[in-house]
Amino acid sequence: MKTSIIAIANQKGGVGKTATSVNLASSYAHLKRKTLLIDCDYQGNATANFGLKKQSKYKNLSTALRVDLPLNEVILKTSNEYLDVIAGDMGLSKLSREKILEPGSYNLLKNWLDCESIKEYEIIIIDTHPSLDLLFQMSMTAAHYYLVPVFAEADPFDGLQYMLEEVSLIKKSLNPPLFLLGIVITKYNTKNATHRKFHEYLQKYMDEVKITLLKTVIPESTAIASSSGAQRALISHHPKLPVTQAYLELAHELLPELRGVRQGRRQGTPTISEMPEEIDKLFDFEVQELEEEAVL
Ligand SMILES: Nc1ncnc2c1ncn2[C@@H]1O[C@H](COP(=O)(O)OP(=O)(O)OP(=O)(O)O)[C@@H](O)[C@H]1O
Ligand SMILES: [Mg+2]
């Protein structure tokens, strides 16, 4: 089976990376696509979301990478037979500090995932850490695709340019097939005028730079926090809610793009390195405008 590895990435903290990782993985599992969620963040939020914190003490990503344990020895099962998890734990923080200076450290996760048991999975989702440290670099080196969640407000764009520059370097030197699936707006409130304006402006800008702004928009919902508190996936806790359905839609929207390792880029997609300056210019100007309007 061809395995597609998707990193959910944005160096900005608290923009819905974990919510997207957990709910996208659960949606694929719901669609009976064998899915593995890798929690590559020492905060372990995705792990906690499935109530796997206790088990992660013995089976976790940092131990697996440190002593090169086989994948199937660290897999944690969930209540859905189609969804397995590799837990994130505090040891990842130490590991990333220790390994950063070692040659080849970027390839740590990629090399570890280069094994037979990976073929069992159709989709692998990596929840990444909000920084550009080794955990981020490892995740982006291991991934075939990445997806960038943003909240529908101005400030989540802080630092996006640096992340895109970093991704561009990783693409050039280590992982040329890495493919941007697009930007997905999360925590969106249709009644909020700033959110609507932001959506409109983002659509215009992304069209200009030929980056996909995904059609699916994830609505704001208190169910995200409540289901994570209840340690249950939205799809089993609140199957009918618009936010649950939106994550299912997102899973469907991305599916046609997922074909394992992808050689070359889609025609018309700019190289990431062309973007930062443009983002800067446009964002400085338009974000200011948005903020002024929001105050009025
Ligand atoms: N669609 C949504 N509606 C309402 N709240 C949301 C939504 N998505 C995420 N949240 C909330 O926003 C907060 C941040 O979300 P999340 O933990 O997914 O972000 P993150 O990018 O993974 O954060 P970090 O960078 O710290 O890992 C959480 O409290 C979460 O419950
Ligand atoms: Mg997170």
UniProtKB/TrEMBL annotation:
Keywords: Plasmid. Residues 4-178 form the AAA domain. Transmembrane segments: none annotated. InterPro entries: AAA_dom, DNA_Partitioning_ATPase, P-loop_NTPase. It comes from the Bacteria. PANTHER family: P-LOOP CONTAINING NUCLEOSIDE TRIPHOSPHATE HYDROLASE, PARA FAMILY PROTEIN CT_582. This is Sporulation initiation inhibitor Soj.
